[in-house]
Structure formats: C-alpha cells, structure tokens
Amino acid sequence: MPHRTPPRRTPPVTAAWQHRGSRDGFEVAYFRSLPDGYRLDGRVTAVENGHTWAVDYTITVDTAWTTRSAEITGRSTAGTRHVLLGADGAGHWRVGGEAAPHLDGCLDVDLEASALTNALPVRRLALGVGGRAAAPAAYVRALDLTVERLEQHYVRIADESSHQRYRYDAPAFDFECVLAYDEFGLVLDYPGIAVRRA
Fold first, then answer.
1. pLDDT exceeds 90 at position 139
2. Is 50 inside a domain boundary?
3. How many structural domains does the chain have?
4. Confidence check: pLDDT of 142 > 60
C-alpha cells in the first residue's frame, strides 16, 4: 500500500504564475494563516481568444486543506459577476446561499482561471508515490462564474529531482498531463496552462 506523504510545510507568503498556452496572463496569490486553516487571496488577469478578463478570489481552507468557502469576482467586457460558495467540509455546498446537491462529495474548489487551486487536492490528499485518488471539485468557470461539478483524478508518480509529480486527468475536457509541484504543494508546471514565476 502506498505510504502517505508527511504534511507539507506552511505555504509561502506569496506565489505567482505566468499563464501561457490556452491564454496569456498572470496570477498572483497571497497566503495567510488562520486559527483554523488558511486564507488564499489572488488575482488573475488574462487575454484568451482575443478577449480580456480578470478574476479575483478569496478561498478559505481548513487545517486539512478542505475548502470551506470561496468568494470570486470576475470582470470582462460582459460586465462584473460575483459568486459566493460555502462548504461544510463533508462534501455539501451552497452556491449563492442555495443548496447545490450537484456538488455533493466535492471537497475542493477549482477555478478555471487559477493555477493555484490545483494545490488544494494535492495538499489535502497527501498521497505517497503510487497513490491515486478521485478528487471531484466545484469548478468555477472564468468568464461567467458558473459552478459545475468536475470529475478529476490524481496519481502520484515518481519524483523528479526535488519535485513531486502527479498524473492528472479531467475526462470532461479529455485532458491529461503530468503536474509538477514544489515542497509547499504548489504547482510549478501545468503544461499548456501555467508556470510558476515566484
């Protein structure tokens, strides 16, 4: 049976990613310790298919890195949108204050706009090499902030140098790749999406 990875270090104060491939942009995030977890504040600005957009987010996670809330604001030529998600940590969600049964069983939020949010299941699961897990997420679209269920899977494969690596797939998008992470459990390289810059 694969061993579990020891708990990761406290995240850095800040991190940044250059988005390239499917879009051109930049993401900056800040981490703050809370008595019962962490608060993640970030902003992404991008150009995608000739259209500009910006997304601001505040995500709170508990000490196990299970998502407990997410507040997202998106801006584009279509206007400004806002959505608030709340979760009980046991797989039940509310979107805009309304129960969202289509998200039952999800423990993470995944923002289409963000490279950071791929850290949430990895930190939460703490898989050892050879470990695998399904990690369905509350998936928030970048342009209109609609919230969908996204089935995704992570398989921990052999490290490369000091970097942990995971085989990732999201069947709904017919997408799979290998993600590289640092010692904090933050994405270093997300092929076709983003690379870490700070």
1. yes
2. yes
3. 1
4. yes
